[in-house]
Amino acid sequence: MSNRMLPSNSQVACHDLTLTATANAIADGCDTNCAIARLSYQGLPLSGQTLSFTLSGDALFSNGAQQLSAATDQLGEATVLFTDTRPETVLITCNYNELQSWDSASFVISPLAGVAISVAVLQNNAPADGVSRNGLRYRVSSLPEGAPVPGAALDVSVTGGALLIPPAGPWVTDGNGLYDLFVAKNEPGQVLVSAEVSGAPEAENHTFLNFVPPPVPVYVLSYTVTRGSAPADGTRNTIVFHLTRDGVGVANRALSYSASPATAQLVVTNPLTNAAGFNTLNLFSYYAGSVTITASVPSIPEVAPVQVTVIFTPVARRYFIANEVIRDREPAGGAPNQVRFTVFSLADFTPQQGVHLAFSVSPSGRLSNATGTTLSNGTFTLDIFNDVAESVRVTATIATEPLTDSNVDISFT
């Protein structure tokens, strides 16, 4: 197929130059490919004009050079012949003033020239992941000498939906008669790679390659307890979890935590693993005893959850709470009943300022405060409201000593 470059000059633009070349001549230095150039002016053949031809590769014109000039005949045509001793595809170019046209022509190995093809398996049993490769190294040699044949074109095919790399030719041997071909596949199984030397179909090779299932990534969730025993007074235990895939940290995966019994409070600054796959869990409790933490990765179900147990040690009680009913038996839906709680030191029975209390009421009712801090005289006064005529129980608990409490019953009429 002719390719042309047209000039901008309007005079020259009336000329037309085309070039057509034959292909598949034997690369024996004798067999020729032929190229015919056609020159016309406003559609009419133009005779007696000199055209310049050039060749690429190792091809030569009949004058033994890679440049040749020829004149057009009465049909406006100029014909040139050229040979090659190397199997290859060459480019022939024709020039006339500012006009240029070109085409390609191939030279192949003679079927009569004794050649053989052999193969060495560079890689087999690659994972079928579409990326990993099996590899073959072909060697084309002459017979009977066994000398390497450089520039030999190969025809290659593969079965089983595998991908050749490179996916398309030319597959041509190098200066040592070698060519490395690679194959990838997305599914496990065996494929057949077939190769033959172009122009020498008797020089062929058929090799089976195998693709194995890709390895399943191994996720592991491990942990390190940096503090596993703490007083049950709000002091934190700390566990550092580490998520890995095939030994490498996995970033930006959320971890899920639960505690049994649910007496500990969990503190997670960020549920996502960091760049190295680590995530830190802090927990504290005001109840002495062991707490088992279960950690999992919801987004990766195949990761086995891990459990780790930490201890909260008993803390000596420092306080007790006394209560005094200030107002009782108020009408339901009206003014509140009132209770005053006083916190004393167990050491010297003195009132304690600044102790944090938590309050609750059952079975129903409303509290003026859910929490409170004792005054300088160790007291905190609590109002209790209720819209139902009933008896209720009010409980005060010290936040840092949840087992230290005080209960009082009051009634609404």
Automatic annotation (TrEMBL):
Residues 15-106, 219-307 form the Big-1 domain. Pfam families: Big_1 (PF02369). SMART domains: BID_1 (SM00634). Belongs to the intimin/invasin family. This is Ig-like domain-containing protein. It comes from Acerihabitans sp. KWT182.
